[in-house]
Amino acid sequence: MKTQKKYYTVRELKTELMKDPGFRREYEKLEPEFQIARQIIGARLRKKMSQEELARRARTGQAVISRLEGMNGKPSISLLQRVAQALNTKITVAIQ
After folding, report:
1. Residue 27 located in a structural domain
2. CATH number where 65 lies
3. Cα(65)–Cα(57) distance, rounded to whole angstroms?
4. Closest CA to 49 of 1, 14, 87
5. What is the C-alpha separation between 35 and 12, in angstroms, rounded?
6. Count of domains in the chain?
């Protein structure tokens, strides 16, 4: 008799993984990057803008926007400023 595979939603998987203190620590280190990516994706989608259109307006390449949204790389402040301007938004930084 075959055992059935258990499938998890992303939320369920995250909840399960966050029980591990080591995983939680590493996840929390990445939170600022997650936040930047989520906010850029959200703003771009609210404007009904493609990555290609955002890249054109921010004077960069579509691959740069893809990496930024995928958290692959360390964006410069100047890139974030251009992206914010292209999205008609502003950057807010908080050190707490």
Report:
1. yes
2. 1.10.260
3. 11
4. 87
5. 20
6. 1
Contact status, residue 89 vs residue 49, Cβ threshold 8 Å: no
Q: How many angstroms separate the CA atoms of 48 and 34, rounded?
A: 21
CA separation, residue 32 to residues 8, 35, 57, 62 (Å): 25, 5, 24, 22
Per-residue pLDDT band for 47 (boundaries 50, 70, 90) equals very high
- State the Rg of the chain over Cα: 17
At residue 1, the pLDDT reads 65
What is the rounded CA–CA span in Å between residue 47 and residue 40?
11
Average of pLDDT values for 33-58? 96
